[in-house]
Design goal:
single chain; about 100 residues; mainly alpha; about 85% helix; about 0% strand
């Protein structure tokens, strides 16, 4: 998956990949009784491609989870090292959010 995708873009891409995998699996099941050398070869290639896509999708989910854990650990470390700075940042964020909400 591309590193330049936004969080929403990654989620949409993952959802699309899952949908494609499900559709391809359904197609393979529907053509299970079909015979012929070319059909059997195509089914074998499709099954291998699906297996690879499932593995890559699972690996990308793991990578995103690891990134989230790293960010959370970094934030936790910062708050522990600079508690008053974290309180200040939270206060400013709360103030800005209050201003934005009050304008509506």
């Amino acid at each position: 998956m591309s590193e330049s995708l936004t969080g929403g873009g990654r989620e949409q891409l993952a959802a699309d990949m899952k949908s494609i995998i499900a559709d391809a699996e359904e197609l393979l099941k529907a053509t299970a009784s079909a015979t012929g050398e070319r059909i059997l070869a195509a089914r074998a290639r499709a099954e291998e491609t699906l297996k690879s896509a499932r593995e890559r999708l699972a690996n990308s989910d793991d990578a995103v989870l690891n990134q989230v854990k790293d960010v959370a650990k970094t934030a936790d470390d910062y708050v522990r090292e600079h508690p008053w700075g974290a309180v200040g940042i939270a206060a400013v964020a709360g103030l800005l959010l209050g201003v934005l909400i009050s304008r509506r």
